[in-house]
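ok here's Short-chain dehydrogenase, seq below lol
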Amino acid sequence: MTVSGDSSFAARYGPWAVIAGASEGIGAALADQLGALGLNVVLIARNAALLDEVAAGVRERHGVQTRAVAQDLTAADAATAIAGATDGLDVGLLVYNAGASDRTTPFLHNDIDYSLHQVALDCIAPMALARHFGPPMCDRGRGGIVIVASLACLAGSATLAVYSAVKAFQHTFAEGLWAELRPHGVDVCCTPLGMTYTPALARMGVEYDPQTQMLSEDVAAEIIANVGNGPTYVVGEHNRAVAEQVWTVDRRTLVEMISAASTQFAESRKH
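and the structure came out like this:
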């Protein structure tokens, strides 16, 4: 699956896109495909060398501007640092793609610092970046926020207790943002993924299996094509079939119902 040029996409979500977790795999593919659509891209990750390589490739292939920001997203000052690095840029799209798990072990076998690191990466950082980039999008009446989650959000799981929990946070947070920002013309979408064949997976010695794994380029293309199809869009036909077995109620209807009830309650508290 590939993404071809589309001026309407750039008009709605440009001129700049910020991609957190962009040094390789899905993030790098997103950067390349957004560049092909004419968006300038800010790439964020810890590995400066990889970021510079991705940024140079996007710039050379597509003639767009790129900016590489080497930043640990779990740092307490991450949002402040990113705000400074993007000051003056007209950011119309935020894609939070960071937050993969590098282990599957019982919660009690991990140091608490490891679990808190997951919370910082998957909960605090995307929330802080959405808070920073969201208001200007609302003021302009256009834009998009994408949180790339995982099918681990469907339910808690042994050996993934914290990971499934933080992914559930991302999912529910994105749905709430969708309900709040949609009236302002800003699209929000959570895009849960299944198994994706990335360089990180290859380094773990896992071989590519087309029956159970998607390629990064295909995942990126499907995400980009569905920015406006929130609040939740599960990436991959097989993954959607799995999710549908768990979610028996249409997610949009469910979010609208809960949002209406909570809004009514909030309004009643004012009187």
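fwiw The chain is about 50% helix and 15% strand. kinda neat tbh
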